[in-house]
Amino acid sequence: MLLEQIVVLALIQGTTEFLPISSSGHLILVPTLTGWPDQGILADVMVHMGSFLAVVVYFWRDCVSLLKGTFDLLRGRANPWGKLAMLIVLGTIPAVVLGVILDLTGFMDTVRHMPQIVAWNAIIFGTLLYLCDRYGHSIRRMSDMTLSPALIIGVAQAIAIIPGTSRSGITMTAARALGFERPEAARFAFLLGIPAIAGAGVLKLGDAVSSGETISLDVVLTAVLTFFVALGTITILMKLVRHMSFLPFAVYRILLGVLLLGLIYSGIPLGTVN
Q1: How far is CA 131 from CA 67, 73, 118, 191, in A?
Q2: How big, in percent rounded to 5, are the helix, strand and coil portions of the chain?
Q3: Would you say 47 and 223 are in contact if contact means Cβ atoms under 8 Å apart?
Q4: Which residue has better confidence, 24 or 183?
Q5: Is pLDDT above 80 for 35?
Q6: Which of these, 30, 51, 197, 232, is most buried using a 10 Å CB contact count?
Q7: Which residues, other chains included, contact 112 with Cβ-Cβ below 8 Å and sequence gap of 6+?
Q8: Is residue 163 within 8 Å of 273, Cβ to Cβ?
């Protein structure tokens, strides 16, 4: 890959993976604006690795507590962190089930070539993000998480498999609709996303092995840059949500969707969704 392509890919993935603005909505614009070829499956794997490590590093205290809580739970000692770990595992199941179904039915192969789905989802879920954030109560913290809200947020994360939805966006939307405070909604969304990001990376790794791609310096550099961009993005977002609503992100998503629809119906070709 070109150095410029590495930098742009890392910037897009590192920011849009965690901001509630849809990564696929930005990625399909790249070929149109730059004319660059597809970066390859292995680059996608390394990007997910960089994103995964960024979340783990930022929330390392939570991750350590979750691991300790899990071990305590396995020893028969119930504790809040063990309970939260189990809720995250259970909340991940809907995405796994739906992902397998959509993959086996060939649905994902179809929608990858339908950028209008990305555009409309950006508008629809951007609007939902605003409404749930604007009218949702702020009465719950992560310590109040139980099976029911964890599964609801997990189902929302599953829907994010469809391009243009935004995994972080829809999970934060669901959490705000359920009354979780904004910082707590973002925090749970990121922790719930750790298994999802790791799983997506593993699946793409299998595709990369099948395609015979080999690790090169440029894909390693992509992972490193993505890690630092993602870590910075998470840090900034977690500070912003303490004092700011999700309105700017919702407006941005709606405008992005309108832009994509304008390009689509003008006959300008867009890229596919990986």
Answers
A1: 35, 38, 20, 23
A2: 75, 0, 25
A3: yes
A4: 183
A5: no
A6: 51
A7: 163, 272, 273, 274
A8: yes
